[in-house]
Amino acid sequence: MYLNDVKLIGKVRKDAQLKALTTGGWVLDFALVTTKNFKDSKGEPITRKETHRIVAFNNVAKNIAAGGKLSADTEILVEGFLRSHERNGFPVTEVVARRLQTPAAV
């Protein structure tokens, strides 16, 4: 049995633009920042921020990008799967979104 499933809630790092693909589809890619708060072994509070690359295609991209963009600091829920590939000779891991939604609507 295999499982490749991701759910993240975070904030969009900077404005993302909806772009047309040469194949006729659409793509929206952006960075999502998630935050985790915990305490170290001495009880001191620590905040750890992680940045995740998110890619959405076609209707998933168009439905969330009202007016053709997704604004920075928008809190959003991302559901999708991990995909790894090379870009310019460097390994890249990204989340391919199956669903994008503002958490208030969850």
Describe the structure.
The strands form 2 sheets. This protein has a 5-stranded mixed barrel with strand order 1-4-5-8-7. It is mostly beta strands and 106 residues long. The longest helix has 7 residues. The chain has one domain: Beta Barrel (OB fold (Dihydrolipoamide Acetyltransferase, E2P)).
User: Can you tell me the CATH architecture?
Assistant: Beta Barrel
Pick out the low-confidence regions: none
Tell me the distance between the termini.
Answer: 29 Å
Which structural category fits the helices and strands? Answer: mainly beta
Mean model confidence by pLDDT: 92
Can you count the beta strands?
Answer: 8
Strand line-up in the sheet with most strands = 1-4-5-8-7
CATH class category label: Mainly Beta
Strand percentage lies at: over 45%
Give the CATH superfamily. Nucleic acid-binding proteins
H/I helix tally: 1
What is the general shape? Answer: globular
The largest sheet is: 5 strands, mixed, barrel
Rg: 15 Å
Residues in helices, as a percent range: under 10%
- The domain count comes to 1
| Topology order in helix (H) and strand (E) letters | EEEEEHEEE
CATH-defined topology: OB fold (Dihydrolipoamide Acetyltransferase, E2P)
Provide tags for this entry.
about 110 residues, mainly beta, OB fold (Dihydrolipoamide Acetyltransferase, E2P), five-stranded mixed barrel, two-stranded antiparallel ribbon, 1 helix, about 60% strand
